[in-house]
Write a structure and sequence with these properties.
2 copies of one chain form a homodimer.
Chain A (H helix, E strand, L loop, with lengths): L3 H4 L3 E5 L8 H11 L5 E5 L5 E2 L2 E2 L13 E4 L6 H11 L3 E4 L8 H17 L3 E3 L6 E3 L4 E2 L8 E8 L2 H14 L4 E6 L8 H10 L5 E6 L5 H11 L5 E5 L2 H7 L11 H11 L3 E3 L2 H13 L8 E5 L2 H13 L9 H10 L10 E2 L9 H11 L6 E5 L5 H4 L4 H19 L3 E4 L8 H8 L4 E2 L2 H25 L10 H13 L7 H12 L6 E3 L2 H11 L3 E6 L12 E5 L2 H18 L7 E6 L5 E10 L3 E8 L2 H4 L4 E5 L4 H10 L17 H17 L3 E11 L4 E3 L2 E5 L2
Parallel strand pairs in A: 1-2, 1-5, 5-6, 6-7, 10-11, 10-12, 12-13, 13-14, 15-16, 15-17, 17-18, 18-19
Antiparallel strand pairs in A: 3-4, 8-9, 8-11, 20-23, 21-22, 21-23, 24-25, 24-27, 25-26, 27-28, 27-29
Helix pairs in contact in A: 3-4, 6-7, 10-17, 11-17, 12-13, 13-15, 15-16, 18-19, 19-24, 20-21, 23-24
Chain lengths: ~700, ~700
């Protein structure tokens, strides 16, 4: 847990304090003074006696009182020495503004390593480098140089100073919300995303966390932390770099099938994070989540005054997979009683001018809707706040009355209301009143829909949370000793790839079924195995030096008679020797033919940011032509395994298509969990590929398996 | 072409003129007077002598001077009589406010029919009914009751009064643009969308057309008109009702595969319309298209000041399929010469603070970029307009200088610039200057990207236009007489479904290949045909009373020997008789087996709004599980046929998958065009289904064909 001395520092040393107005070392102190920072400020500059009436010190270690945090504005090259000095003084943390570290090639990375080494030695925690700084709004501790940021209950974590500026400007101009903290994470040389998250989870001034992320150094730790945090506080996140990351991730075969940004998106969502793709949605979503209760049943009613808005709202909520359920007869009757005949009391409700002479009618409708047990929240769209502008000034009081009623309804029912108003621009008092009750007001219909949509999404996550965490899956604990031996053997022989029968043995053990693939050392042994199977067999060359067995003439299918099998053995070995005279040939694998069924593919790879990732798809056209695959960060729960299967677009093929029998879903799910367990049990595995697996009506056959160890 | 007397009326009669302040007949006249309508106003009300100092008339026919247009505010039931009177006076058009017509069930529809009948008799053209009215901004002719709408060069056509209010409010509040006209089309009882379009295409005050559409009565005419209009003026359109239409369109088998909203979207785009899905995008897109040249080569450069905005902008433009090409070495050198070392001169360009003390640098960069022949437009993102706010007030003049340079650059190069500015809210003068030159400024990064994206989309449409129109496809002109005879025969027999061999003959004739399916009337005849084919044959029952041939035991496959064929004939006929003793059995169809190849499906149906629509997909899993199909409104050109094939997600299957030979794309394209021609040649066809067709490496086989005539 991050010490309070970092983000809640009681005293600040400003290294590089300056009299030059344009310098950061001048601006920082001026803003701390102007914004009335609650702690003590120590300018540090050997050439100055004093600054803004404060005594100036030649170095941090010369400051007589304790120093919590140093803001360091001097160039990159000075950092190791400055931190040495901070360390001697016992400073707890440093905010490092300078760029020119890890982002600028090898020399920068070397400097960054050196700087972090010094910091570790003295237990100094670092924000940045290459950061725009940090703001603690409640302590008036502003180390950014961005004035007049509005205070509120949203913690902002951003990897771009510009995006922080965007959020802060929008909060100020477009709504009445604000921030508890801002942190520019910069290069994450020391403190990384998950530690800020942990801190904000416990911060009493923070109700929601808003994040702009370009890339993460510790994606896995972040996910683990987020999984905890989102149970208590909502997180809204925009991850940019979709297009670039898509290009970068074309690594191994499995990864080339989809951009890793898809992996990140799914992983974030699985951790309960609300992921948005459009930066315009960030603040509205954070505002709704920070101030309103989530929706418990994914059911929303739209309350409109006119057709167009109602239609667009319905389209939009349908796209967001929010239900617009029918209203109960009782609810409809109550609405009818207060609305004109032309009104529509279906969902969306259209008051059809019924509020023109009395906007309180809208609040009455909202009350009826929110007291319907089937309705989880209400989206009001259209003209509220503007009845007084459009029709008669005297309606302003009625609108204010309605606003109070809306606000109290939320408190009373524990269900949210979101307001869309064309008249937001005119800043009527009634809309400010709504904000006083935490009801956000947007002039965009689509953003209003999105805001109520994320309340439903987050509510759904919290509702499903329990079913997601209760799982124990450790079928193969006993298998681990033998598994370690197999991996050890490969290492001993200087191999990074397991032989096919080794890989299959490992999988079978953890899957909890006997491995039917057998290594034969002679033609006679091959016949013996085949006779035991009492089925037609496939035979494949086993050699660490032959990767592509078919190319080397090392595969024979559907063999039945002993003579066939003997001949096949000899031919396979001869072909292999012709293909590569140096090859170390271990024998020939004999296995029963897989039989009919649906071809599936399961693979894993290591992602730079998130560690091991699993992929699943239905083989052939679906994977190769349509890229119809799903990814998850490992490990996965039975719940996730089931979701992975159901998320495949071609999932219906598992039910049997055009007279084919259905595939054994239970076995597929079990195999996914087995792979998850194997990757969790043997951290030395870099990649695993089961391609293809044939899923039968009952059970499955792993036709080919490949496991590669880390270098 | 709509008469000038409707939308440019020189005199207005207000039927239902009133002294009651809340009545439309009062407000309308007050606003005409307040906004200084250039024409003459005649209040009509038998109970009043005068209103606002104007003489009042008992009925329209009592007005002594000519009347161009009547605004009718009286209830629905009065309409036939009021129009009778207008007709006698020779009024050219009427705006009908009242609701209660077609939208309210059968009684309303009857009233609407009656009203239209009177209007037709007297050649009165009707706007509405159920409309919020019409505004001609340049003549100050405001029949809506919505004050202070801003004047400009965008014509607004809306099917929702609320959405019109939204657009007008946004234009006023968020930008400096405005409208030439607003028309509320209402129920389209008489004048429909395409006529307004034709009028605005020719209107010198209109540069772009903005449309909000819920549904269309004459979709086909609209598309034809739009196809003409978009060559001259851009159209931006939002079609709502995605979710509802999706439900409604689950009609015939073909239609059930995808919502018809997909048909509409594709059809609109094919006519050159810019279709948006988010109402927030409507006005920004219209503003860009109305005031800036389209982009000729789909290549855009981003000019940023800071990383975050550049990254998000790149993601967004990539999603919109706009290219961000590399810059030439020459361009890079020129940029380097004026930017600091930390700047990035790749695309996106990041000036990295290089404009902090001189924002003119941004205009210099834009000049360099737009003079690169490979760059078609520039998107400036970030802080422009705010350098004076953030750093020093004195920079305001430099920003204004830069704004003039940006504006002149657009004129000089014929390439557009779009500006994103965080400081739009502060309304700095420099941003107003940009608007003076037609450069839009948005505070949303995503909307800025969308705006430059549609300039690229529209430019691409205009560029490709020629290749789209040059086509003649009339292979089967000679076939038409025989085709008519086949259809006639079916009608004679009281059949709506063609028999399979009739349908296949029709298709073969138009496709230009002999039909190999033959009707055999006896076992011996069947053998004769089979011997002529010299191939294994399929045999199928032919009976107008048996639709599902397999169910009736009426299909036999892969028959070779004469004895087999004879037996099959007898069995098929016996089975058919057992299945339906009343069945009129015409014989048995004999055809060569189709052979190997890829299964495809082609179908047509009639859409309520757009008329005949064609569907294409790859059979089996692709259509049935993945709904991987494309639609087009008919007729289609060779260009569209090619696009249809390429838009299928599983298109790669046509190239041959896992060792399969490729399918004959030319033949598939030809078959699509043949179907288009057939539907165009025989308007009496309601539905056509070719399912399946086997596409071979060379040529194709229509395995089953079904043609249904209109009732």
């Amino acid at each position: 847990m991050l010490s309070d001395k970092i983000l809640n520092a009681g005293s600040i040393a400003v290294v590089g304090a300056s009299k030059t107005v344009t310098k950061r070392g001048y601006q920082a102190i001026r803003i701390l003074l102007e914004e009335k920072y609650e702690g003590r400020i120590y300018p540090v500059n050997p050439k100055l006696e004093s600054l803004f009436g404060l005594p100036c010190y030649p170095k941090v270690s010369a400051i007589p009182d304790p120093v919590d945090l140093a803001l360091i504005t001097t160039p990159a090259a000075t950092l190791p020495a400055v931190l040495e000095d901070c360390g001697k003084k016992g400073v707890a943390g440093a905010v490092i503004i300078a760029g020119g570290f890890g982002e600028l090639g090898e020399a920068g990375r070397e400097l960054e390593r050196k700087m972090v080494e010094v910091a570790r030695k003295y237990h100094i925690r670092l924000i940045g480098p290459n950061t725009s700084g940090m703001i603690n709004m409640h302590k008036h501790l502003n180390l950014v140089g961005l004035r007049d940021a509005p205070a509120g209950n949203i913690a902002l974590i951003s990897q771009s100073g510009n995006m922080a500026l965007t959020m802060i400007t929008e909060a100020k101009v477009k709504s009445r919300i604000g921030f508890s903290y801002y942190v520019g994470v910069g290069n994450e040389a020391d403190i990384s995303f998950h530690e800020y998250l942990e801190f904000f989870e416990k911060d009493p001034n923070t109700s929601a966390i808003l994040m702009y992320v370009e890339g993460m150094r510790n994606g896995r730790k972040f996910l683990q932390q987020a999984y905890q945090t989102t149970r208590k506080k909502p997180i809204v996140l925009l991850k940019s770099g979709r297009s670039a990351i898509g290009q970068r991730s074309a690594g191994s075969h499995t990864g080339a099938l989809a951009g890793m940004s898809e992996v990140a998106r799914t992983a974030f969502k699985r951790a309960g994070i609300v992921v948005v793709e459009n930066s315009d949605e960030l603040l509205p979503c954070a505002e709704a989540l920070a101030n309103l209760p989530p929706i418990k049943n994914n059911n929303v009613a739209i309350l409109a005054d006119g057709g167009g808005h109602a239609t667009i709202g319905s389209d939009e909520l349908s796209d967001l997979k929010v239900n617009l359920p029918d209203l109960s007869d009782k609810t409809k009757e109550k609405l009818k009683a207060i609305l004109p005949a032309a009104a529509s009391v279906a969902n969306p409700v259209d008051v059809a001018g019924g509020a023109d002479d009395n906007p309180v009618v809208l609040a009455q409708c909202a009350r009826i809707l929110l007291h319907d047990p089937n309705i989880g929240g209400v989206l009001v769209v259209g003209l509220f706040g503007g009845y007084s502008i459009r029709f008669s000034e005297s309606l302003a009081f009625a609108e204010e009355d309605a606003a109070h009623q809306f606000g109290k309804l939320v408190r009373e029912t524990g269900k949210p209301i979101i307001m869309h108003s064309l008249y937001n621009f005119a800043k009527p008092h009634s809309l400010d009143l709504l904000r006083y009750y935490g009801i956000p007001v947007f002039d965009s219909l689509e953003l209003s829909c999105k805001a109520i949509g994320v309340l439903a999404e987050y509510g759904g996550y919290l509702r499903g949370y329990k079913s997601k965490v209760k799982f124990v899956f450790n079928m193969g604990a006993k298998a681990k000793a033998r598994g370690q031996a197999i991996l050890h053997q490969a290492r001993e022989e200087g191999r990074r790839a397991l032989l096919e029968h080794e890989a299959k043995e490992l999988i079978s053990m953890h899957f909890g079924s006997p491995c039917r693939d057998q290594l034969a050392g002679s033609p006679d042994e091959a016949v013996e195995w085949a006779e035991k199977f009492e089925e037609p067999v496939v035979m494949k060359i086993v050699s660490p030096d032959i990767l592509h067995k078919s190319e080397a003439g090392g595969v024979r299918l559907n063999l039945k008679k002993p003579a066939e099998i003997k001949r096949a053995y000899k031919e396979i070995v001869a072909n292999a020797k012709a293909f590569n005279p140096e090859a170390d040939i271990r024998g020939v694998l004999v296995a029963p033919m897989a039989g009919d069924g649906l071809e599936i593919i399961i693979g894993t790879k290591l992602d730079d940011q998130f560690g091991p990732v699993i992929m699943f798809g239905i083989g052939g056209i679906m994977v190769e032509v349509l890229k119809d695959v799903v990814f998850r960060v490992l490990p996965i729960s039975p719940y996730s395994a089931k979701n992975m299967i159901n998320e495949i677009k071609s999932v219906k093929l598992l039910d049997g298509f055009r007279g084919q029998p259905p595939a054994d879903r239970k076995a597929v799910k079990r195999l996914l969990l087995t792979v998850s367990e194997i990757i969790g049990s043997y951290p030395e595995i870099q990649e695993l590929d089961l391609n293809p697996v044939i899923a039968h009506e009952e059970g499955l056959s792993v036709v080919d398996a490949r496991i590669i160890l880390k270098p």
